[in-house]
């Protein structure tokens, strides 16, 4: 365990290992998303109440899942960075924040588009849309705070603290907003519990969720590699790498 | 000379008086100093209250002077305006201490920074949150808030604003080192204020409808207990980041 953590301290080691890992995640993301999209859009049966408009959940639900998972990962990497001073963790957190904000925005936008045929309006102050909106503000806060500091080390530590404070607050916000108002349908997708939709609709959704997660991991690996090169550009191994490429 | 003695000798005079006095002395000295400083700068204490009254004045002008309409939205308006007033006063919470270097001295004391920061937040609540809570019923009359909810309004604001001060102090500590932290501070802190707003305004609404208000107040109390136990640690960590950066 400690040997592994010590290895993680070395950006060079991470750069090498991620080079081997990232093609697998990109391939998995591509296959799963293409399969899930075609299956979900063309072959899954239409909903008997909502017709074809329900198909937007194949984007909406995976994006909403990722939006929440990314914030938690950001807090975990923030904690790892604060406790063990592992620079890789902070680099990963840096590249995760915009991705998480983008996923939150996609979830909000697809929810709004779905709202037009279903509710007859673009926006409804319902519990889940509202807590998604608040999550978007939390993401924007973390990004803005990181950008506001002149020194990178302070920016990293401040963003880590804010991500940890945010992650403690997310469940509180979620439940207080739910208590405040519930108009949405109950959750449509659970991995354990009872499945609320037939298998032919649920399987492509599962594939899409897995595809989105693979995409997230692949993108974080790739972008963290660029971040390593950017931050370590004065190290010898990076210079040697650049000379080899030329 | 050992390391702890060395850092003790650099502490502000008030904290050095009794080298063996320990934590209670340090917290009391911080409380006394901050109270004294704030009472000497009276306008800083009064400004949030004037802001609160002003914002409340804007709503009847902007929406409608109709008492029935105002009464329906009064609980939310009063809570939101009080929340914004408390937010505006946060920027100055650590600013002066940061500028004149006494914040660094606070970091150097052998006492835990979290508890000293808690003392500063307590003073902030005492001179911002509590006056806002006491003033709210008067503004409630002007918004024709239904009778029977005035006490609940004041109690919920007093309880809730303590959580607001604690959560807001995290944001203030994170942004104190930045030259233009004001807008950023609101951006960081406002999303975290939402649960307090929901249950605070909910308590007043429940009182108007004649429902039980104890559940809301209990949750406000629970939020305060959580903030009281975790926020000082986050404030201390944030202050260290701002000082070293």
Automatic annotation (TrEMBL), chain A:
Residues annotated as transmembrane: 21-44, 56-84, 96-117, 129-149, 161-181, 201-221
Keyword NAD carried by entry: no
Topology versus the membrane: Multi-pass membrane protein
Location in the cell: Cell inner membrane; Membrane
Cytochrome c assembly protein domain location: 13-184
Keyword tags: Cell inner membrane, Cell membrane, Cytochrome c-type biogenesis, Membrane, Transmembrane, Transmembrane helix, Transport
Pfam families assigned: Cytochrom_C_asm
Top-level taxon: Bacteria
Coiled coil: none
Keyword Membrane in record: yes
Main subcellular location of this protein, as a coarse class: membrane
NCBIfam families tied to this protein: ccmC
Protein purpose: Required for the export of heme to the periplasm for the biogenesis of c-type cytochromes.
Family per record: Belongs to the CcmC/CycZ/HelC family.
Descriptive protein name: Heme exporter protein C
Gene this chain is encoded by: ccmC
UniProtKB/TrEMBL annotation, chain B:
Signal peptide feature range: none
Alphabetical keyword list: Cell inner membrane, Cell membrane, Cytochrome c-type biogenesis, Membrane, Transmembrane, Transmembrane helix, Transport
InterPro entries linked: Cyt_c_biogenesis_CcmB, Cyt_c_CcmB_bac
Membrane-spanning residues: 45-63, 69-94, 147-176, 183-208, 214-239
Pfam families (alphabetical): CcmB (PF03379)
Similarity comment: family membership: Belongs to the CcmB/CycW/HelB family.
PANTHER family: CYTOCHROME C BIOGENESIS B-RELATED, HEME EXPORTER PROTEIN B
Protein name per its UniProtKB record: Heme exporter protein B
Organism: Billgrantia ethanolica
